[in-house]
Amino acid sequence: MSTYLPETRYPLELAPAMPDVWELWQRAKTLEWDPETDIPWEELHPERYAEHQIMAARLHWSRRTWGEYGAISESPALLLRFCLENRLPDLRFFFTMRTQEEGRHAEASWLMAERLGGYFPQPQNPPTVSAVGTHGVRRMAFDPDTSLEGIFASLVCAAEEILIDAFKATVHKATNPAVRRLMELILRDEVRHIAFGWQCLDAWAPSFTPETVENIERAVTQMIQNVEFNGYRNLWLAIEGGSATPLEIDADRVACEAGLGGTTPEDEMGIVPQFIRKIRARMAPWGVNLPMFDHPKLGKV
Amino acid sequence: MSETSDRLLRGYQAQEKRFLERRFPLRFTTENPALRELYAQAKGFRWNPETDIAWSRFDARAYAPAVREAARLVWSRRAWGAYPGLGENTALLIRFCLESGAAGMDAKLFLSFRPAEEAKHLEACFLFAKQLGGYESTPTAAVARVSNQPFAQMALDPDVPVEAVVAALGCLDDQIDLNLCLSHLQHSRDETARAILRLVASDKQRHVLFAWTLLGDRMPRLDAAGRAAVGRAVRDMLERVILAGYRNTWLLPEEAREPLLAAEALTAQEGLGASTVAQEKAVVRATLAQVRERLATWDVALAPVDHPELGRA
């Protein structure tokens, strides 16, 4: 082990330093749940739905599983960075729980796809992998030239925020009790994840340098243009169309209309522009100016 | 952030780039029911250091100031020992993900829980040290040196097979840690110390089972070079880390043992969550014998070691 680089771990401070974030850690410990036992699976009744609806819902929940997996395989790298950089203990404590919760979301989404008839382990056309496969957070987390503030802003305040905005806007459409409960439980965890990101950035904002602001602008812009508009969350939004099949692109709408989760293009037309306006306004006091984005379906947002 | 952390991050960056991640097909089905069961148990046996330990029933004034001072030092050291688990297990989780999307989901799900469990252990140690008079954030230089091991880097090193990482960290270090924890529990009389040790041990038991179960699944498929790497990693962990005092103060260089050694003796005597040196020696010797026997079933030889404090073990 002598070839590895020594860390500077001490002094190892453990006392809470960010009370709001510490509270999120405390709260997370009291709200643990189990996808196997806390979802009313007996109320799923896939036999009550048409074949094309079940297929769409299986595709939707499989896609969600792939997305959640990114939070197991990529964003935990941030915890390694917090440890190396001796960030405040609140961040380290909270992020351990976030990884656990994301693992649970992945398992729950997989179980939903399975119990609807079967999980799909990959996109129908392999090239779609580039759209849905990664948001690139692990690479960013291990890159000292990418500021932590930029990663937080792009991962938490952009990628996770839009996910939750979509959930919030459509959870009432999930008429299936099992699907609805799952969405509520995921939503409850994700609200904490997002609060974590905003609380950290708000606390650090007074010390932002022009470089930090530029870094945030670049990271958030890339997340919206290269990830969100590439169809990572919803293939209907993919600007290039990619290689996704019509069935995959339409899956969210069909599942949503059946009450089995997902969004319709009409939902997205409302959710995405509103989300961009919201984070643009929310980040403005930090000196962050997000550009206008052109999207063929959404227009200028 | 700092030159050191930048260098360390670039190290991770370089390690990560050496893997060619194949995320799809991304399989979730159970490959190893025993590992999936350990994950299910982790979900079911959750606890919270803030609320599941009866802190209000602990009366620090029942102990003399010297005892409190000793115990706060011992529990601070225990926090320093728990802390690396956050990073090591996160790195191991990322390692499994980098190796394959198609395989290893049982391990990935289990490891997605483990950093939070380690964080709970850390918090419990911190809270108890606080109750005893205050957590100590800075060890002596010698203890800092021996407890500051680059295991997260090892977990992400593509030149070290994942089985070797799990064997060194899980089968040896975690096993010693668990057995020591059980010894402290057995010899503790204080209700709060016992509650903490019992809860921590229940998690550690799973962690150790995870390591042995994973190896039980993978070792038979490992070639001779892989088995040799496992043997090297375990021996390295034993000789350069464990026997250097990573878990046991009496194994530190003689001049570096105090004031911790005296603090542990007093804490053990008062039943506040420690074992005597004699008890710890018995635990380490028994654990090494146990680990050696289990590894031998896979043709991995762990040669006896000689140490002035431990003798031949």
What does this structure look like?
The complex is a heterodimer of chains A (301) and B (313). Chain A has 301 residues and is mainly α. Chain A has one domain (46-300): Ferritin (Up-down Bundle), CATH 1.20.1260. Chain A has helices spanning 19-30, 51-73, 77-84, 89-116, 129-132, 137-141, 148-170, 177-204, 210-227, 246-257, 265-283, and strands spanning 294-295, 299-300. Chain A has a two-stranded antiparallel ribbon with strand order 1-2. In chain A, a hairpin with a 3-residue loop joins strand 1 and strand 2 (299-300). In chain A, helix 4 (89-116) packs antiparallel against helix 8 (177-204), helix 7 (148-170) packs antiparallel against helix 8 and helix 7 packs across helix 9. Chain A is globular. The relative contact order of chain A is 0.15. The model of chain A has no long low-confidence stretch (mean pLDDT 92). By secondary structure, chain B is mostly helical. Chain B has a single domain (30-50, 62-312), classed as Ribonucleotide Reductase, subunit A (Orthogonal Bundle), CATH 1.10.620. Chain B has twelve helices and two strands, in the order ααααααααααααββ. Chain B has helices spanning 3-17, 33-44, 65-82, 84-99, 105-131, 141-147, 151-155, 162-186, 191-218, 224-241, 260-269, 277-296, and strands spanning 306-307, 311-312. Chain B has a two-stranded antiparallel sheet. In chain B, strand 1 (306-307) and strand 2 form a beta hairpin. In chain B, helix 2 runs parallel beside helix 5, helix 3 runs antiparallel to helix 5 (105-131) and helix 8 packs antiparallel against helix 12. The N and C termini of chain B lie far apart (44 Å). The model of chain B has no long low-confidence stretch (mean pLDDT 96). Chains A and B meet through helix 1, helix 2, helix 3 and helix 4 of A and helix 1, helix 2, helix 4, helix 5 and helix 7 of B.
